[in-house]
Design goal:
This protein has helices spanning 81-90, 122-129, 149-158, and strands spanning 4-7, 16-17, 29-30, 50-55, 61-66, 74-78, 94-99, 107-112, 115-121, 141-145, 162-170, 174-180, 186-192. It is mainly beta and 194 residues long. Strand 12 (174-180) and strand 13 (186-192) form a beta hairpin. Pfam families: Glyoxalase (PF00903).
Amino acid sequence: MPGRLRTTPRDERSPVVARPGHVGASECHTATSRCRARTKWSWYPYLSRAHRSVAAPDGPIQTRWMSLFRTPQIVLFTRDIDRALVFYTALGFEEAFRTPTAGTPIHVDLVLDGYRLGLAAESSTRNDHGLDPVTEGQRAAVILWTDDVRAGYARLVELGAKPIKTPEAWLGRLLIAWVEDLDGHLMQVVQAVG
C-alpha cells in the first residue's frame, strides 16, 4: 500500500487532526497529543509507515502513507570481487560506492540506468557478519535490457560468461538469452521485438 492516500482521520486509535492550511508532519496533531517529530515525516509506534499531510487542491487535507523501505538493491556474493567488478564494469555498470576505498574492496555498489547492483566478497560476508553466503548457483538473475540481444549475448560470452541458452523468442514479443556470470549467477539479456 505504499503511496496510498487516506482522508484524515486515519483510524479510531489515534485520528490525525489537521488544521486548515496544514502541511507537514511537524504541524500534525493527534486527537490526544502533538506529534513529537520535528521533521517532515512522523512515525507512530503502531504503524510501519510514515505519514505526511497534504492539502488537496479542491478537497480535504489527506494523509499519504509512505513505505518504511526505499531503494531496493540486489547484492551478489562473489569469491573474487576484483574479477566480478571488471566483468560488470565492462557491461557499462559504473562504480558508485566502494569499501575500503583503497585496495581490494569487500563491497562495491554499481549503477546502470538507475539500477543499483552490489557485489560483496564472500569472505567478508562470512567473517564480518557470520553468514554463509552462496556464491554460485541459480538463486537470482540479473536482467539486462538491450536493443540487440545477439550482440549483448555475444559480449557477455566474450567477457567470460558461461552460455546457458542462445537468443530465442519468448511470449511473441521478446528475444531472450541466458548466461551465467563468472560466479555462476544467472543473467538474462532481453530485447523487445514488438
